């Protein structure tokens, strides 16, 4: 479905995890926030943002893919809350010295082993 909201340039920019991780590290450093960005604090912040994200869907019933009936303001709010979750997740992995991108790729390989593609039925 075509997206007519001004802000939403779906996939217009291939942002890398590294770019986000570096930008977030700079952002925290410039504000003297490294002292607060401990793994536990970031985890709690992440969970808080997941709660805010959940509130957007709360009491709405099932929501159609593509959010066809949502206003641009509602979609923008959702983008912001998803971003907060992503930001804290990336920051948490970074302060734990973990390579989140590689870890996710490795996990996908493990998932594929655990859940193999079903063989085609030949009847
Ligand atoms: N110590 C902090 C505080 C904020 N942020 C960043 C990460 C999030 O992207 C955003 C969170 O900011 P707020 O706590 O102001 O939360 P919201 O943006 O959700 O605002 P509100 O709760 O008013 O909706 O700012 C951060 O990295 N470290």
Automatic annotation (TrEMBL):
It is an enzyme of class 3 (hydrolase). Pfam families: MazG-like (PF12643). GO terms for biological process: dCTP catabolic process; DNA protection. Its cofactor is Mg(2+). One of its GO terms (cellular component) is cytosol. GO terms for molecular function: dCTP diphosphatase activity; magnesium ion binding. It is found in: Cytoplasm, Cytosol. It comes from the Eukaryota. Transmembrane segments: none annotated. CDD domains: NTP-PPase_RS21-C6_like. It catalyses: dCTP + H2O = dCMP + diphosphate + H(+). Keywords: Cytoplasm, Hydrolase, Magnesium, Metal-binding. Gene3D superfamilies: MazG-like. InterPro entries: DCTPP. Homotetramer. Hydrolyzes deoxynucleoside triphosphates (dNTPs) to the corresponding nucleoside monophosphates. Has a strong preference for dCTP and its analogs including 5-iodo-dCTP and 5-methyl-dCTP for which it may even have a higher efficiency. May protect DNA or RNA against the incorporation of these genotoxic nucleotide analogs through their catabolism. This is dCTP pyrophosphatase 1.
């Amino acid at each position: 479905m075509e997206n007519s909201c001004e802000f939403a340039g779906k996939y217009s920019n291939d942002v890398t995890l590294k770019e986000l991780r570096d930008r977030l590290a700079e952002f925290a450093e410039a504000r003297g926030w490294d002292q607060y960005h401990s793994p536990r604090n970031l985890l709690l912040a992440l969970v808080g943002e997941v709660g805010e994200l959940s509130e957007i869907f709360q009491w709405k019933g099932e929501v159609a893919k593509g959010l066809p009936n949502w206003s641009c303001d509602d979609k923008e709010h959702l983008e912001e809350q998803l971003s907060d979750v992503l930001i804290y997740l990336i920051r948490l992995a970074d302060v734990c010295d973990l390579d989140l991108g590689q870890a996710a790729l490795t996990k996908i390989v493990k998932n594929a082993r655990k859940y193999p593609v079903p063989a085609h039925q030949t009847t």
